[in-house]
């Protein structure tokens, strides 16, 4: 294999380069606008609410408005299974990373390492590079993430039993509703009443399920498409605005946060890569190139906002959690292009 050729193809792939530069430039723009007080302290939070309650649900739902075939269905099931199993693995493995720390601090670091910002940071990048298919896999992968984030992470950080409020958050979250609704509609479409519709891409008539609004109701699909398109830029602006709130000098003086960042954006995705390689080669749980890339990008994300909020809200190493969130976000921005290059090299081997 010619690594030079692979690198050249990666760095001349405009979809990859434009996704990386868009991420960095728009995050930087949000940072500058916050530093200049054009964005207020509350503005980043407002953007976050818009993204989480409107744009990402629209993106999740729209990603399932696609034809179904056995190969994609199998991949989706494999991604779902892996997305559940890997969090069980990480819950135990991340504890080993922090054995030299006091138990309470180690527990907090373990939770922060297990749960990344897959929704807010990962999905926009995946959808920008890998399109609708990547967004679909990302939404399916996040099912396991949300199950453990609102159960295990909450119990571990609060020291309390699971309460009704968190169960409600888990199942009534707009993104979860949109994901499950889209997933069920996607799977059931061969068994639903079919109608003739003009395929916008091919300009040919085809038979589709009556609820395939991308073909049967463009007047409804288009508004959702515009809302979904806001997810990436608004999320990146909010990330930049949040970074503008924290003093880098204070965060950089915390050695623990540097160690955590290395574990979060380098070691955790590497663990996922090894597991996926083993499962694919042995044909136990094989994934294709897009699924591999989606999972690695999702796992190379910085601290999850919810996990960080748990630490702050329950006063569990709150300052360290804030520092770790800042440094891991910067680390993720630096490492994301590197991981994308690694993914391109792996794909060139033909293993996936």
TrEMBL record:
Subcellular location: Membrane
Membrane-spanning ranges: 12-34, 46-65, 77-96, 108-130, 136-155, 171-188, 224-244, 265-285, 291-312, 324-346
One protein family per Pfam: Mem_trans
Record's keyword annotation contains Protein transport: no
Keywords: Cell membrane, Membrane, Transmembrane, Transmembrane helix, Transport
Record keyword Membrane present: yes
The protein, known as: AEC family transporter
